[in-house]
Prior knowledge:
The protein has helices at 27-37, 41-45, and strands at residues 3-5, 19-21, 56-60, 63-64, 80-85. The protein is an alpha+beta fold. The protein has one domain (3-85): Roll (Ubiquitin-like (UB roll)), CATH 3.10.20. Strand 3 (56-60) and strand 4 (63-64) form a beta hairpin. The model has no long low-confidence stretch (mean pLDDT 94).
Amino acid sequence: MPSVRIPTPLRKLTGDLEVVQAAGVNINEVFHSLDQAFPGLKERICDEQGQVRRFVNVFLNDEDIRFLEEGATPVKEADEISIVPAIAGG
């Protein structure tokens, strides 16, 4: 089952867990699985259309899914998914 790294601001939804396991054959299914286990998590990552919010970056094994197949990006058992909120500043 792929592991998902949860950023600090979202850990209150996972009981302060930094890494969780989630089932799925692609990113969208993993997010659905996460939302089943931790209600409210997906709505903070994805918009109403199910697309990753523009201020959230998602990496599969250090590759940005926006340059892969986005939500349809396939995942394997040993993969690591990282959710990284964008940081603004100047």
